[in-house]
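Quick question, first post here. What does this chain look like in 3D?
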Amino acid sequence: MKKIIHRDKSRGYANHGWLESYHTFSFAGYHDPLRIHFGALRVLNEDRVDGGMGFGMHPHDNMEIITIPLSGALQHRDSMGFNSIVKEGDVQIMSAGTGIRHSEMNPSADEAVTLLQIWVFPREKNIEPRYDQQYFEIEERKNKLQLIVAPVKTGKEVQIMQDAWFWLSNPEKGFSQQYSLQAKQHGIYLFVIEGQITIAGDVLNRRDAIGLNDLEEFTFTAEEDAKVLIMELPMNW
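> Answer (accepted):
Ran it through. Tokens below.
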């Protein structure tokens, strides 16, 4: 098994006044040649956007873009005609494909929104752009894995144009969860949203992350009540 740990304090940071952003991988003004991507995972940003502020219309192409609000809400508009509010419990995905434009604004006048935005390299370039958004019951991830992103849509999970699976879990203190990979050539990137866990002999705290590959399964244990995001992705990128 190979592993790499990215601690909270090692992330890139930018403060634009109305926007605070933490970058796990190189992004915008933050560049670390050793932290460009983890397999097909290109971006993992944590953004805090003040009330009434946000990102105006801007373009993307050939990227799978997943947004997971942690608190507050975000208003999304795009060139495909979608106009929606994305809030805690929701998971949004856009396949940018041949090209889209979108905006992300905080519709609240005084409440900040905090979110994770994740970019994944697509399996195939220049596909037709697409959009999906689903709400997931938070209670249904207590002491279990809740599938939120998958390459084939069989239930509520949003579909990604890549051989990738994303799970959320809220383990209580003392609970252990085992995970078996879908494919041996894949890797796991686990991000601790809240709390503390032990995994692969290491203790991870709030906003710490670990990348694992060359393994078939692993187990993590909550040392205190926790919230974690697990991403299984191809490593040949």
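The CA atoms of residues 92 and 133 lie 4 Å apart.
Residues 2-234 form a domain with the Jelly Rolls fold (CATH 2.60.120.10).
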